[in-house]
Design brief:
Blueprint: H1 7-10, H2 15-38, H3 45-66, H4 72-76
Length: about 80
């Protein structure tokens, strides 16, 4: 996850894939915060990128829950 994911990249993913990406991003955020606390973090901007990535994932999941955005596979059927 060198570069942040956009909402357009996240929307076509399955729910399980979103959950997996969310788990990975939260784990990365934990590690970055740990590095920051110990003074080992070199790229402090990455904290902000990962937080925003987590927010994007939650947003896409909520859009689906509310029916705002339908999963593309459902539309094609």
């Amino acid at each position: 996850m060198a570069k942040g994911l956009t909402a357009e990249e996240l929307r076509p993913l399955e729910h399980d894939e979103l959950v997996q990406k969310l788990k990975e991003a939260k784990e990365e955020l934990f590690n970055l915060r740990f590095q920051s606390a110990t003074g080992q973090l070199e790229n402090t901007a990455r904290l902000r990128q990962v937080r925003r990535e987590i927010a994007r994932i939650y947003t896409v999941m909520r859009e689906r829950e509310l029916g705002i955005i339908k999963i593309e596979k459902e539309e094609s059927e």
